[in-house]
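It is worth pausing here to work through a concrete case rather than discussing structure prediction in the abstract. The textbook approach is simple: state the sequence, then state the predicted structure, then interpret. We follow exactly that order.
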Amino acid sequence: MEELNFNEAIARSLKIRELYHELELKHHGSEWTVEEDALAFLTDAGLVGRLTMSQQGRWPTGGDTKAELAHKLGESIWWLTVLADRMDIDIQVALGKFLTKTEKLLRK
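Step two, the predicted structure:
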């Protein structure tokens, strides 16, 4: 099992996105916009839903559902990291604030 810290995950995620931008330029003449990245994330999030249904025995997909679901969950985290960076949001700060706010709300 590959375990990594959040800083390393962010750095690797952004490097991979740069490599995808190079492919986009090569094949389409321009990089994807932030909106296109968001749409790609939403597509993958939808696949997480479908694969969850399969994993729970509610939808037949065939193949290795657990491996596909793990991949799409990882990819979704990657997309969120990329989107935050492209919109000048520090994902670590955003997550920290969300966790703190939610913990306070639930402790009332």
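Step three, interpretation. The two ends are 37 Å apart (CA to CA). The chain has one domain: 6-107.
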